[in-house]
Amino acid sequence: MVLNQIKYFQNEYKNGVPYRILKLDLDLSEMDLKDILILLDEKEIVSYKDGNVTILRTDEINVCENVAVVKKEILNQTEEKAFEIIKDVAGESGLISRSLLEGHMLYCELKLSSIRTYKMILALENKKLIKKVQRPDGEYFTLNF
Description:
Elements: H1 2-10, E1 17-18, H2 19-25, H3 30-42, E2 46-49, E3 52-55, H4 67-73, H5 77-90, E4 95-97, H6 98-107, H7 114-126, E5 130-135, E6 138-143
Antiparallel strand pairs: 1-3, 2-3, 4-6, 5-6
């Protein structure tokens, strides 16, 4: 989706598509858009410099075949640690209660603040790595792959 918009706007902006134009046009959070652009820049698919984005390769681009791998690649370090903790705690069932998840984010290895814990869980949900599920005994999260 991001690459398609860059291709679309590239004809209009010869010196690169301004980041602010992409941000206005795409329905992505600022953090997600920046993470995606940085990932594409690292893979040398686009050049992301000085707030402008240009496509470096116009051949058929296969960024990644597995959506989960792409989503995992665009995590920042704290999100990656949080996701690893969730995977470890959830175990084979892939389920973790909301209170247990929040407890691990607040008091264990990461020691996040309450607001940062909330934002972390929301970020992982938005990246579709975890999903909230309601069970008779409370609210849980499940791994999405």
